[in-house]
Amino acid sequence: MRLRERRVAITGAAGFIGSHLADVLAGSCDLVLIDxxxxxxxxxxxxxxKKGRARFVKEDLLGAKLPALLKGTEVVVHLAANPDVxxxxxxxxxxxQENIVATFRLLEASRKAGVKGFVLAxxxxxxxxxxxxxxxxxxxxxxxxxxxxxxKLTCEALAASFAHTYGMESVVFRFANVVGGRSRHGVVWxxxxxxxxxxxxxxxxxxxxxxxxxxxxxEDAVRGVLAGVDRASGLQDVFNVGSYDAxxxxxxAEIIVREMGLSDVAFSWTGGxxxxxxxxxxxxxxxxxxxxxxxxxxxxxxxxxxxxxxxRDSLNIRRKDA
Length: 322
Prior knowledge:
Elements (H helix, E strand, L loop, with lengths): L6 E5 L4 H10 L4 E6 L10 H5 L3 E5 L7 H4 L5 E4 L6 H6 L2 H21 L3 E7 L23 H20 L2 E7 L1 E3 L7 H11 L3 E4 L7 E2 L1 E3 H14 L4 E6 L5 E2 H11 L6 E4 L14 E2 L4 H4 L9 H12 L8
Parallel strand pairs: 1-2, 1-4, 2-3, 4-5, 5-6, 6-11, 7-10, 8-13, 9-14
Antiparallel strand pairs: 9-12
């Protein structure tokens, strides 16, 4: 499978990862950029749409006439999802509908439209509290501890079943925490916004020093998708995408404070739940990316560098090595 020089539809295209992937593919692909704009912003697609071989369609995957929308599409890249782990603990139904049901409807529409390839954005949370860290793709059994992780694992299984039943090739990417410009979700975004409101006190969910996880910059994540799709084999292939290391929430907070040029910030910890920040929050995560590295891909950023660059991205600060 490949993406360049193909007719590609991207769901969640106006969101964080989707818009960056659209930027890279625009000009080399005929793109259908699909988003309901519930969290994405059409402005994120301004650069891709200017290149001429892309069109934007505002549609919801739960309500769209998807087969007609996908007519002529060769590859679907499915990035649309409800990623909110915290809210799914209180009400799991939106995650079920927006992740599992939406993915099934998209797969079925893809089958009816004659789509040949399906690329799915999954997550490190499918591994749950893995006993092997760094965690490789073949680790098992997979026991997610959040509704979000469970929904993504279900989506992987649905994609595998369509691949084996209907011959629709599938490539799954299990991402570490992706950070960078245009992100409006996750710990980096949350802490930056809190410090903008109060630059002297920062409330942090969990117990000091917080969870320890891998963070990957959006540039590395998009390059990983392109490399993995190009080298995928079999009816379904799975790749981890992450950095080599991990950092704690406390380290993240300290990086953000430094990059924002602040001082004398008092950290206030909420206490968290069972060692995490909230129910379903995995305490330790590093992905083994050896499989993706066989393609020649390497992450340019460590976790700390990815977080620092993400803060500069969000504040529109010129990269220090630029």
